[in-house]
Write a structure and sequence with these properties.
alpha+beta, FAD/NAD(P)-binding domain, Flavocytochrome C3, Chain A, domain 1, eight-stranded mixed beta sheet, seven-stranded antiparallel beta sheet
Length: 521
């Protein structure tokens, strides 16, 4: 919107919308350079989807990797990234990510609070330059404060606690919560950072084509915020907006995302579009198979170490041990698990007891799942097939074929167990530990649907994280990072930590650009 007056409720040098990994990296980068920085967060919690995550960070060539004994570089990663992502995104954007990744880690670790460590987690594609053991780094756990701390006490709870309404308990902040906590402490230590919770960016304010601030809703009241250097949009995607998902992705709704409930509704993206921003990849998400819950939501599921996935015909359609985004794309291609009436069924035998043979970020209550028809158990495969509505002979043939593959150690249909990622989560034995036979009953079938870790389409940015017009010229004063942007990885998910890692790098780049240029009008 055009500026309709010069009355401001607040002023700052840099306004940051969002409080995930990309937003807080950008906020710290600006504040550490002496800029008065204001972070606005829509909810009562800091962290967004980052707080739910395992917080793997794909940041090639960084010093935390070196401390862990891993030799990596931007050029080594570039060969892999190019092979996977190719021409789907501009090479200068890819290079900006890769060439500033190590610098971002070094800049953060110059502050006493952010600390990272290397942990093995394989890259996701068999392509030149791949690291079979992975190149991701993770935040070091953050000890819980001994006394109340306003910022750390407001870090979003883990997904399992928030979804199930359970207390978090004592103990350190781990994974994504550790990353958010450490970045908040770094921001606080600069003396130049301020935060406003329960404040949603509503629209951008422009003057002569330049973004000079924003209107936001704070506790239901409109506030006008002037940003002298610029505005950084890093407020997540639009996965929580059912209407946009239907329009842009053709999906039925917004219940199956791992994004926090009702949080990432795309308002920052829509505000940027209203200011003239170009968009891309709006049909894309960071896909994943997800366990469907009795309340209609779903939760990210990965790391299968038993069972098979079958579609509505009772047949397998993919390698169940694929990296999750690739498995999600197989589900999309097969039109399996994409709507409530065409679920995928995770079929396994009784050797796992009441446990699911895989990792779910929110635990399942078998009794509640059974009562709502999401978990079926039968003494025979015939009985299980009838319970889930597939042809018994087909399911029996599928299991018989799979068990033959397990005995031989070779999945002739989908090559499960041939890739280092497949084997990363295995617990089985035999010639191929990824192929655990489905033996004697009782047999189980649990419903799986297509979920996501968030959308990955949004505004287009350049190598300086500046938001672009349709003609590829930058919108002065406007920057973006993370899922508010069209992802640098295009329709691919190269490795663990690309979503948050790239968000952090472009947040860092945006802060650097705002700090090194003049006042914003």
């Amino acid at each position: 919107m055009a500026n309709t007056g010069d009355t401001w409720d607040q002023e700052c040098d840099v306004l940051v919308a969002g409080s995930g990994g990309g937003a807080l990296t950008g906020a710290y980068g600006a504040a550490a350079r002496g800029l008065d920085t204001l972070v606005i967060e829509k909810t009562e919690y800091f962290g967004g989807t980052t707080a739910y995550s395992g917080a793997g960070l794909w940041l090639p060539g960084n010093q935390a990797q070196a401390r862990g004994g891993l030799e990596d570089s931007a050029d080594l990663a570039r060969a892999y990234f190019r092979a996977v992502v190719g021409e789907t995104t501009p090479h200068e954007l890819q290079d900006a990510y890769l060439d500033h990744a190590a610098e971002t880690v070094a800049f953060l670790e110059d502050n006493p609070h952010p600390r990272f460590e290397y942990r093995p987690f394989p890259d996701y594609f068999a392509a030149p330059g791949r690291f079979d053991a992975g190149r991701a780094v993770f935040p070091v756990d953050l000890p819980a404060p001994e006394t109340p701390h306003a910022l750390l006490d407001a870090v979003r709870p883990p997904a399992w606690a928030e979804r199930l309404g359970l207390p978090v308990g004592d103990g350190p902040l781990t994974d994504g919560r550790a990353l958010i906590g450490r970045l908040l402490l770094a921001l606080e230590s600069t003396g130049n950072g301020r935060t406003l919770l329960r404040t949603e960016l509503h629209r951008l304010i422009t003057e002569d084509g330049r973004v000079i601030g924003a209107e936001a809703l704070h506790d239901g009241r409109v506030v006008r915020i002037r940003a002298r250097r610029g505005v950084l949009l890093a407020a997540g995607g639009y996965e929580g907006n059912a209407a946009l998902r239907r329009d842009w992705q053709g999906l039925h709704g917004a219940d199956w995302t791992m994004g926090p409930r009702g949080v990432n509704t795309g308002q920052a993206l829509l505000a940027a579009v209203d200011a003239g921003a170009a968009t891309g990849l709006l049909d894309e998400s960071w896909w994943c198979p997800s366990l469907r819950f009795p309340d209609g939501t779903a939760a990210f599921t990965l790391g299968l170490h038993g069972g098979i996935f079958v579609d509505g015909t009772g047949r397998r359609f993919a390698n169940e041990s694929l990296p999750y985004d690739q498995m999600g794309r197989r589900m999309l291609a097969a039109k399996a698990g994409t709507t409530p009436d065409n679920p995928v069924w995770w079929v396994f035998d009784g050797r796992f007891g009441d446990e699911l043979p895989g990792i779910t970020v929110v635990p399942a209550d078998r009794k509640a799942f059974t009562e709502t028809g999401l978990w079926h158990t039968a003494d025979t495969l015939d009985g299980l097939a009838r319970a889930i509505g597939v042809e018994p002979g087909t399911l029996e043939a599928t299991v018989r074929t799979f068990n033959g593959y397990a005995a031989d150690g070779v999945d002739a249909d989908f090559h499960r167990g041939e890739d280092p990622y497949d084997r990363f989560f295995t617990q089985g034995e035999g010639p191929n530990p990824c192929l655990v036979p489905i033996g004697e009953g009782p047999f189980h079938a649990v419903q799986i649907v297509l979920g996501d870790l968030g959308t990955k389409g949004g505004v287009r940015i350049d190598a300086r994280a500046r938001v672009l017009h349709e003609d590829a010229t930058p919108i002065p004063g406007l920057y973006a990072a993370g899922n508010t942007t069209a992802s640098v990885s295009g329709p691919s998910y190269p490795g663990p930590g690309v979503p948050i890692g790239s968000a952090m790098v472009f947040g860092h780049i945006a802060a650097t650009d705002m700090a090194t240029r003049g006042t914003n009008g």
